[in-house]
Specification:
Shape: globular
CATH superfamily: NADP-dependent oxidoreductase domain
CATH class: Alpha Beta
Number of domains: 1
Distance between the termini: 46 Å
Radius of gyration: 18 Å
Number of strands: 10
Number of helices: 10
Length: 297
């Protein structure tokens, strides 16, 4: 069994195959979650300006006692900070809150479909930050096969990652193929399908954690359905950012390097795809996104 602990990004930077996500993690619980994850063995933390917990992520990193270079830190620019000067300022807000001088990965949170010119300007600002050495890699999130080519036509630096909703109930084959065609790493948010059971999410309305197929396959390996799903992602070359504030769950999600899924098992998980997303449709304008302003540092 080959154990892969890092993926190579298209610019040669290496990213851990698994990180801790802090989406919807209350600021009051974020520092402890980050500190716990780093103690367990995680070396990648994914946050965003819109999560309003960058400051607490930075505190968790400092409390870990680990050297800065040992931790891969990723955050995202929100749409209200899109534009050349706005995005550069968004970066300054982020590093001030995190208490860092350099980011390992900075990405755009989603395409601003109703203002795509601002999206392009924002990405070009990321390119400047990359050229200046302020960030080690740049990328995007929630870019569909509709919008990714339109961005690529206007930019110089190919995104290192595209972070998209991806779990057994929403496999996004077309997005995965589009990413792969350009050497872009697919990074899965909601990798164990937590969003599928949210009320009104538009998803299948049931939890992947209770899916009979996933429970059967997990039991065969002496693992939980969550561990099975994370292993499924990593074996297929996707980076994952599961979220939790529960110390036991944080540790469990990281304990995925001592088993391997067969081709048949991977295919059975792939076959669970419903084609139904849990998050918003990024191919249509989301004007409500512009109602949210990112606070100053």
């Amino acid at each position: 069994m080959t154990t892969v602990l890092e993926f190579d990004l298209n610019n040669g930077v290496r990213i851990p195959v698994i990180g801790l996500g802090v989406f919807q993690t209350p600021p009051a619980e974020t520092t402890a979650a980050v500190e716990t994850a780093l103690k367990v063995g995680y070396r990648h933390i994914d946050t965003a300006a819109a999560y309003l917990n960058e400051r607490e992520v930075g505190e968790g990193i400092r409390r870990s006692g680990l050297p800065r270079e040992a931790i891969f830190v990723e955050t995202k620019i929100w749409v209200t900070d899109y534009g050349s000067k706005q995005t550069l300022h968004g970066f300054e807000k982020a590093i001030a809150k995190l208490g860092l001088e350099q980011l390992d990965l900075l990405i755009l949170h989603q395409p601003a479909v109703g203002a795509f010119d601002r999206t392009i300007a924002a990405y070009k600002a990321l390119e400047k930050l990359y050229a200046d050495g302020r960030v080690r890699a740049i990328g995007v999130s929630n870019f569909t096969p509709t919008w990714l080519p339109r961005l690529l036509d206007e930019i110089e630096v190919i995104p290192a990652v595209n972070q998209i909703e991806l779990h057994p109930y929403y496999v996004q084959k077309a997005s995965q193929a589009a990413n792969a065609a350009h050497g872009i790493l697919t990074q899965a948010w909601s990798p164990i399908g937590g969003i599928t059971s949210y009320g009104g999410s538009g998803g299948p309305g049931k939890s992947t954690l209770t899916d009979p197929t996933l429970r059967e396959l997990a039991a065969a390996h002496g693992k939980s359905p969550a561990q099975l799903m994370l292993r499924w992602h990593i074996q297929q070359g996707r980076q994952v950012i599961p979220k939790s504030t529960n110390p036991a769950r944080i540790a469990e999600n990281f304990d995925i390097f001592d088993f391997e899924l067969s081709r048949d098992e991977l295919a059975r998980i792939d076959a669970l795809d419903t084609g139904k997303r849990g998050g918003p449709d990024q191919d249509v304008p989301q004007p409500q996104f512009f109602d949210f302003q990112i606070p100053e540092a």
